[in-house]
Write a structure and sequence with these properties.
The protein is α+β, with helices and mostly antiparallel strands. Helices cover about 35% and strands about 15% of the residues. The chain has 20 helices and 20 strands. A six-stranded mixed sheet has the order 3-4-2-1-12-11. A hairpin with a 5-residue loop joins strand 5 (about 90-95) and strand 6 (about 100-105). Helix 8 runs antiparallel to helix 9, helix 12 packs antiparallel against helix 13 and helix 14 packs across helix 18 (about 615-625). It is elongated and about 90 Å long. The protein starts with 14 loop residues before the first strand and ends with a helix. About 35% of the residues are buried.
């Protein structure tokens, strides 16, 4: 089967390629650097920049790379990591509190480089100094920590020393300012990777001579893994040359690429799906037996779907505004820059500078033309895309939790915050069919699928709703035979309880050193959410029939929206004001409402309310023994057992919460209680506001 257009094979690299470069704050230099990678056999895994271009606190992006930079208005250093590398290793950015330094911790559950180490660190620095104080912005102690695992230190250090440039004549100030760095490096076991005397900076203007200030050091655990240090990439327009450092491959193991579900070959797959048979579920099984049956049935079906679905491959498209003329100008500039570095005469420097100016000026015209065309063709749907292109995306904050030094420690701290320990719920030793269970129908499955958005983010298996819709359209019996035993037995299997928890920063927080500065979005497997929608529809019908929901409960219920809650509150307030009464309202929010739903209390409410036993049993099974894999930059990616009461992101969780808080509703003489999910509004009326305050305090105490 041919790969989708623009995709190419992604062989496992036999080495780790790292690029180091000073961009001089120029977007054109940045673009020239990344465009030059297209002339290489493989893209570098990591690109470390000093003085990157910045516009309104945003850095440029390049397709196929993920950027990391300090959370400051004008970052002095930045790192761009290949997306395929990010997906295979844990990459945790660290900010040392100095604007000119950023480190990357790269780790894996398996040993790296064929050694006993599971992690290594890269420190990227741009050390600047002023003539007035002659003090560098990055101290030797920050650059060269004494660590027991592989460490690479590199950057534009702006120091001159005979060890890096033996033929240069040095002033006393240059030697005295650079010596502490080389002494600290030697003391901590670091070795210089630069070949002595190989220049890294070639000024194109002025009388300054070439120098060696872009340095790289490796400590003793990493030194044996360094394959080469080279400055062979073409010039980018910066007076610093791009440097390539090659290390041994960290690990031969690569995660499998993700399927491109939008390109599934349904023409070939349809007749196979029509003939697919789901094996019969075991009668009266134990929970482990049903879990095993469910896993085997789903794995067979998913393997069949993946067999006819192409996988995503790393691809790096050219900028859409790039022209053949720009390629010619780039080659001419690279040739002039190489000649200037080789001969180093004023005439050659002038030619290289003129070529650079013409090349950069020629870039602006097609860029502006393409942007104008994009805006002219913009639609209401693409306006947000245009805004993102114009202003960029804000750099996400990464957890920097005190006491959590490793990715696993950070993962555990966040897990304990988002999922505090709760009493686990026990499952019955053997499952038996419920006589009260209404048989599941294909119409119910179709109705549930019709409510599912094709753009909804999938869970751990990555299968979108669109795939399940096509499967159900081709052979409705597949989902029916998979889900029927779960309804009859009142059980939710462990294979459907796994989820991904995406950790996002809360904007505007003064500090991100606490787990409370982050929130979590839980992504559940889509096939599980199909069943949850079916159970939610049945449970809602039964709850309304038995009167388990209060008439003043709004939100997450059909035909009762925010508008209804606001209209009801406004109407009652005006009604209470007619006899010249004073009206006051108290608005309350139940903190972490879904997380505090008690399973046993909820089960008692359902049983005493006359809910069919199979629904009571299924909900209890659904709420217990769940697992979650936290997703954040630097996360180890390991699933962990969690005790979740009503998981956020589930279609049935809002209804379960409404049933749980329904008993809290009560009548208020000359007043009103109305709720919207976990938001309560208590309204009272009397002859004075002071009297209202006393009544509201009493009502609040009653709720507590």
């Amino acid at each position: 089967m041919p790969l989708p257009r623009g995709q190419g094979p992604a062989p496992t690299p036999a080495f780790l390629s790292i690029i180091q470069h000073n961009c001089l704050g120029s977007w054109n230099v940045f673009l020239s650097l990344f465009e030059s990678f297209k002339g290489t056999t493989t893209y570098p895994s990591i690109v470390l920049l000093q003085d990157p271009p910045v516009n309104k606190a945003h850095l440029p992006s390049f397709n196929g790379f993920k950027s990391f930079f300090p959370p400051v208005r004008k970052p002095r250093v930045a790192a761009y990591v290949l997306m395929s590398f990010v997906s295979n290793y844990t990459v945790l950015p660290r900010f040392k509190g100095v604007d000119d330094v950023r480190s990357l911790d790269i780790s894996s559950s398996e040993p790296l480089f064929g050694t006993a180490f599971h992690s290594f660190r890269i420190i990227n620095a741009y050390s600047t100094n002023t003539v007035a104080n002659r003090v560098h912005s990055v101290s030797p102690e920050v650059l060269f920590p004494d660590l027991g695992f592989p460490l690479l230190v590199l950057g534009d250090l702006n120091i001159h020393n005979p060890l890096s440039d033996p033929l240069r004549h040095f002033s006393h100030r240059e030697v005295s300012s650079s010596t502490p760095y080389f002494e600290k490096a030697a003391e901590s076991g670091f070795a210089l990777l630069n070949p002595p005397g190989e220049y890294t900076r070639f000024p194109l203007v002025g009388k300054a001579r070439p120098s060696v200030i872009d340095l790289a050091f490796a400590n003793s655990p990493l030194l044996a893994l360094v394959k080469s240090w080279e400055a062979t990439l073409p010039s980018t327009g910066s007076d610093h040359v791009p440097i390539t450092i090659t290390l041994a491959a960290p690990s031969p193991n690569q995660k499998p690429p993700r399927p491109r579900w939008v390109d599934t070959d349904w023409e070939t797959l349809d007749p196979i799906i029509k003939g697919f048979k789901v094996p019969a579920a075991p009668p009266c099984p134990t929970p482990p037996q049903l879990d095993e049956w469910m896993s085997e049935s789903l794995n067979r079906l998913v393997a069949l779907l993946k067999e006819h679905t192409p996988v995503s491959r790393p691809s790096h498209h050219s900028k859409p505004w790039w022209t053949p003329h720009l390629s010619i100008l780039r080659r001419e500039y690279h040739k002039a820059a190489r000649t200037a570095r080789k001969h180093d005469t004023p005439h050659m420097r002038e030619i290289a500078g003129t070529s650079k100016a013409g090349y950069f000026k020629a870039i602006k015209t097609p860029k502006n033309k393409h942007w104008s065309s994009f805006l002219l063709a913009a639609t209401p749907q693409s306006l947000w895309t245009a805004k993102r292109f114009a202003y960029g995306r804000a750099q996400p904050r990464f957890p920097a939790l005190p006491g959590a030094e490793t990715p696993l420690q950070m993962n555990n701290v966040l897990l304990e915050h988002f999922f505090p320990p709760k009493e686990p719920f026990s499952t019955p030793p053997r499952l038996r069919p419920h006589r009260s269970a209404t048989p599941l129908t294909t119409d119910e499955i179709a109705a549930a699928l019709s409510q599912c958005s094709p753009t909804s983010a999938p869970g751990p298996d990555g299968i979108p709703y669109s795939t399940w819709k096509q499967v159900n359209k081709t052979n409705p019996s597949i989902l029916l035979h998979i889900l029927v035993p779960l309804v009859l037995l009142g059980y939710h299997p462990a294979s459907l309880k796994g989820s991904n928890g995406v950790v996002l920063d809360k904007p505007g927080k003064p500090s991100y050193e606490s787990p409370s500065s982050f929130r979590i979005i839980v992504l559940i497997r889509t096939i599980s959410k199909i069943l949850e929608r079916i159970i939610a529809a049945r449970l809602l019908a039964a709850a309304r029939l038995k009167g388990l929901l209060h008439p003043n409960q709004c939100g997450s219920l059909p035909w009762l929206s925010t508008y209804d809650a606001c209209l009801t509150l406004t109407n009652d307030v005006k009604t209470l004001q007619r006899p010249r009464l004073k009206v006051s309202s108290l608005f309350l929010d139940i903190k972490a409402g879904f997380d505090n739903v008690d399973n046993k209390t909820l089960a008692r409410i359902r049983r005493e309310g006359g809910i069919p036993p199979y629904l009571v049993s299924w909900v209890s099974s659904f709420l217990g023994e769940r697992s979650c894999t936290l997703i954040f930059q630097g996360a180890p990616g390991t699933p962990a057992p969690v005790n979740v009461r009503a998981p956020q992101g589930s279609p049935i969780s809002p209804l379960l919460f409404l049933l749980y808080v329904a008993p809290l509703h009560f009548g208020i003489p000359r007043g009103l209680m109305i709720t919207y999910v976990d938001d309560f509004a208590l309204t009272v009326a009397s002859l004075s506001y002071r009297g209202n305050i006393r009544r509201l305090q009493d009502l609040f105490d009653r709720l507590e």
